[in-house]
Amino acid sequence: MNVATQPCLLRVGARRFGDAPALLGPGDRLTFRELDHRVSERARTLTTIASPGVWMALKAAHSIDGLIEFLALLRAGFRVLLVNPTQPEAPLRLLMTRNRIGRLLDPDGDPLPDRGGAGRSLPGAETLAFVNEAPCTGILTSGSTGVPKVAVHSYRNHVLSAAGSATVMPLEPGDRYLLSLPWFHVAGVAVLFRCLLGGAALVIGGRPEDPEFLRDLRISHVSMVEAQFRRLLGRQAPLPRLRGVLLGGGPVQPTLLRSARDRGLPAWMTYGLTEMSSQVIAHGPDGRARLLPHRECRIAGDGEILVRGDTLFLGYLEDGRVVPATDADGWFHTRDLGYWDEGMFQVLGRRDHQFISGGENVQPERIEDVLHRHPAIAQAVVVPRADAEFGQRPVAFLDATGEIEHDALRTWLRQYLNAWELPVAFHPLPRSEDMKIRRADLVALAARGTP
Known about the structure:
Elements (H helix, E strand, L loop, with lengths): L4 E3 L1 H9 L3 E5 L2 E4 H15 L8 E5 L4 H12 L3 E5 L5 H10 L5 E2 L23 E3 L5 E5 L7 E5 L1 H12 L9 E3 L7 H13 L2 E3 L7 H6 L4 E4 L1 H9 L9 E4 L6 H9 L4 E7 L4 E6 L5 E3 L3 E5 L4 E6 L5 E4 L2 E3 L8 E10 L2 E7 L4 E3 L2 E3 L1 H8 L5 E11 L3 E10 L5 H8 L11 E4 L10 H10 L3
Parallel strand pairs: 2-11, 4-5, 4-6, 5-8, 10-11, 10-12, 12-13, 13-14, 26-27
Antiparallel strand pairs: 1-7, 2-3, 8-9, 9-19, 14-15, 15-16, 17-18, 18-21, 19-20, 21-22, 23-24, 25-26
């Protein structure tokens, strides 16, 4: 019986794109052909440490060596769990033990010894065709709870995610895509696969909010979150001529999108999730929403967003087994609430963020949307705090561009919010290294009363 497979994008790229740049980093430049060779050489060493098909954990260092290690692990036939290089050792080891992941590799640590070809001979040992339904990568996703899950994807999931993205933002040899997001998250992995598919160069190093860096490195495409986008637009220097800006990680203030349009930046907003291998829906500069190929999306009767399709992950890794996470019809329940409205796709917020205050339902994202309209507020996150009289009350964490008088802010909010939606306290929004907002941490801070 023939088994359906997906060819290795890097090997295909080495043949199609040859001497086009594939990886650019500080003081380093690799063509597709050179990258393919380096990955094969590294895979030869990796085949000496374990048998193909087992899980390996990899500290996803933001470096050329880190990316080569990842591609080499895939080529050696391993399943790869990508982890934050700064993740504490104890919980990581516990996660590995529970899921029977035997080894942790660190590209920036002590390298594996090169045994001079002692591993199985190549190219026979190279994995150049990936079985469509076989586990390939594991990506940690904590959602809003802070409890990590391992979302397992096939190689085909990542390839078709890239193919769908290319229908709205195509890449070609000569393009340069800045890897500005951590690639232990699905958004970073998606950028790598988009570049391999289209023949674009992946650029390591530099900050997306630095217009001089973007111009000097001739960056053509970049993915970023709202905070990075805001900083880029806030710079006084002339903006670079980017061909594509992909915005994810949550809603983006309309004023920022208008500013980008006025200054000639083609910004795409996206709705996506780890379980769908990144993007699902893209809003173009024209404001129209597009459901990307290889995905399906529908709104359930209660407003929940359901998704399925060829980019849907295989399931969660539990005790070393991949457990599917769909209903009987193959739909994944996102826990996000949303709706379609005249060509626009609106996300209201997370079902599990909603709480009750004095008998009234409170959707934190609605309060955040109002706070984002205030001229002195760059970012806002609202969480519940226990209250003896009302059960729970909203507390707001703010990233403000200047001093805000709290009583004046409440007076301003009363124009737009119900009484039960008014925050009872305001705190500075803590900064996280990977730019993720962890509501569980903010709930704990709100309970203490002070950050």
